[in-house]
Amino acid sequence: WKHARGALAGIGNPQQYHPVPLTGRIQIMNNGSLLIRHVLEEDRGFYLCQASNGVGSDISKSMVLTVKIPAMITSHPNTTMAKKGHVKELNCTARGEWPIIIR
């Protein structure tokens, strides 16, 4: 298995692919499937499966893994103060899959 990130990787650009690092979280199963446990944002991208058996040409197929990130609030004040009669802006920022609606 090989992995590539970026828009051009899946358009027949094999130099963009690098071997998938096999760790306790990522492993190749006995049937050749790639198993990714606890998927991370950096796992997104193109994956290339290659097969050969010495008879005929080697074959390969690519697929795209999209990782959906739930909305997470990244900053907000726990407490804030305002003077009576003044204007006060309360900020809340979030990250995750777009669109994010803050209300």
Automatic annotation (TrEMBL):
<dbReference type="GO" id="GO:0005886">
    <property type="term" value="C:plasma membrane"/>
</dbReference>
<dbReference type="GO" id="GO:0098632">
    <property type="term" value="F:cell-cell adhesion mediator activity"/>
</dbReference>
<dbReference type="GO" id="GO:0007417">
    <property type="term" value="P:central nervous system development"/>
</dbReference>
<keyword id="KW-0393">Immunoglobulin domain</keyword>
<dbReference type="InterPro" id="IPR007110">
    <property type="entry name" value="Ig-like_dom"/>
</dbReference>
<dbReference type="InterPro" id="IPR013783">
    <property type="entry name" value="Ig-like_fold"/>
</dbReference>
<dbReference type="GO" id="GO:0030424">
    <property type="term" value="C:axon"/>
</dbReference>
<protein>
    <submittedName>
        <fullName>Down syndrome cell adhesion molecule like 1</fullName>
    </submittedName>
</protein>
<dbReference type="InterPro" id="IPR036179">
    <property type="entry name" value="Ig-like_dom_sf"/>
</dbReference>
<feature type="domain" description="Ig-like">
    <location>
        <begin position="1"/>
        <end position="66"/>
    </location>
</feature>
<dbReference type="GO" id="GO:0070593">
    <property type="term" value="P:dendrite self-avoidance"/>
</dbReference>
<dbReference type="GO" id="GO:0007156">
    <property type="term" value="P:homophilic cell adhesion via plasma membrane adhesion molecules"/>
</dbReference>
<dbReference type="GO" id="GO:0007411">
    <property type="term" value="P:axon guidance"/>
</dbReference>
